[in-house]
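Request from the bench team (R.T.):
"We need a structural guess for the complex before ordering more pyridoxal-5'-phosphate. Sequence and SMILES attached. Just send the C-alpha cells back."

Command: build protein-pyridoxal-5'-phosphate structure.
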Amino acid sequence: MASLPTTNAGWLELGNQYLLRHPMRTAPLVPERGDGLYMWDVEGRRFIDFQSGQLCVTLGHSHPEYVKALCDQAHKIIQVGTTFIAPSEVLLAKKMAEIAPDPLQKSFFACTGSESNEMALRLVRKYTDRFEVIALMRGYHGQSYGSASITGRGGMLREGYGPMPTGASFIPTPYEYRCQFCRDEACCNLGCADAAENVIDSSTSGRPAAFFFEPLMSAAGQIVPSKEWIQRIVEICRERDILTVADEALTCFGRTGKWFAFEHFDFVPDIVTCSKGLGGAVPLCAVMTSAEIADAAVAKGFMPFSSHAGDPLLCETGLANIEIVDRENLVENARVVGNYFMDRLKVLEDELEIVGEARGLGLCLGLELVTDKRSRTPNFEGAAMVTEYCYENGLWLPIVPRMQNKDPLSLRFMELSGSQVLRFMPPITITEAQIDESLEIIEAGLRIAEERTARVAPAAV
Ligand SMILES: Cc1ncc(COP(=O)(O)O)c(C=O)c1O
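Reply to R.T.: structure attached below.
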C-alpha cells in the first residue's frame, strides 16, 4: 500500500482527489491533534486555536475529563432507537433547566445548529398555526432549507438553490457602527426598531409566528445589539403575539460570560436553540422551551425525531461538558478574561487608524477593520493580511476570505458577511497570560496591516 502523506500539502492534494472541497474549506493546515488552547498540524507545528474547533470546543481540545466521559459512555452504549429515552438525555435536559431562567424547562435534542433551527421553525408553526416568521438581515441560522430561509444573507448562500420555503421577512440589523438610521444623530434613536415594526406591519399579516435572532450576531461580525433595541423588539413581538427564538448556537453555555447571551439583555426568550457549545465537540443540539409551549405543541401533533435525537453518547458527553464548565467556574472566567481582553483591544482601537471598533461579549470578541476611522470603509485586505500573519506566526483565527475582485456587488456581499471583522473566540479556559501571548501576534499583524492599508480620508467639506 502506498504510504500516507506526512505533510499538509500532501494531505490537501489527496483530499482534492476524494473530498468535495470548496472556498470554505481552504485552510492551509491539516490539524492532527489538540490539547486545550493548542492544536498541532500533521507536520507538528503548534497553533493557538482562536476558533475553538468550529466554535464548539469551549473547554479546549480534548479536556481529559470530557474525553473520559466520552470513552466511558462509548464502552457502555452509544446509540439507541428514537423511541427510547436515555438517562443521560434526561439528566442533560434537567441540568439545562436548572441553568436556564424560568420558564425554559423542556428540551429535545438532535445534532447540528441548522437542525435545531429547522426544528424550532416547525415548532413555532405547529404551536401557533401560523407560518410567517421574521429574522434579521445579516443573521445566520444554517444550511438546511428551513434554516437558510431565515438566514439574512443573499449572494452565494442563495444563488442557484431555487426557492427557499416561504414565510420569512427580514428586519434591519441593529448594527450601531454602520447604522443607516442614526448615523447623523448624536445617539441611537432606535430607528432600526421602528423600521422593524414597519416591516412586520407591511410585509406580513401583522402576526407572524416567531422572531428568530442571534443575541450576539457572531458570523455577521460580532455585532452586539443594544439592550434598548432588544427590549423594544421584544415589546413589538409581545404586542403582536410573536414568539421570540434566540439562536444561541455558538453563544450558549458560557462563551459570552453568562450561561446564555440573552441574559445580557434582561429578557427570556420563548424558545432557545443551542448547539456548538452544548456538546462541546460532539454533534449535539437542542431546542429548549417552556413546558407550556412544548406540551401544547405535542398535543397538536408536533413530533420531532431523527435517528440521533438524544443519543446516549452525545448527551452523556454534553452533560460532562456543562458540568465541567460549571465546576471549573468557566462562565466567570469568560467574563473576567474577556473583560481583560476587551480592555486591551480598546487600546488598539484608540491607537490604530485601521481599527474601527472593538466589540463583543465575554470571549466572543472582534475587531472591525476599516481603511480609516472617518470613512469607515471596510478594510477586507487588512483583515485577510492580519489573519495570514497570525497563521504564519502560530495563531489560528477564523478564516477571512481574500477579496476576489472589486466588483461593487462582491464588496457588498463581503461587507454583509462581516469579512472586515477579525473574530476572536478561544476556548473559555484561556488565561490572561495566554491572551497576552496571542495579542502579541495579533498586534504585530495589525501594525503591518496598518502600514500597508491605512489611508487618510479626505476631510469633510
Ligand atoms: C448562530 C448560528 N446558528 C446556526 C448555525 C448552524 O450550525 P451548524 O453548522 O451546526 O448547522 C451556526 C453555525 O455557525 C451559527 O453560528
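Two things stood out. The domain at 77-327 is CATH 3.40.640.10 (Aspartate Aminotransferase; domain 2). The chain has a mean pLDDT of 96.
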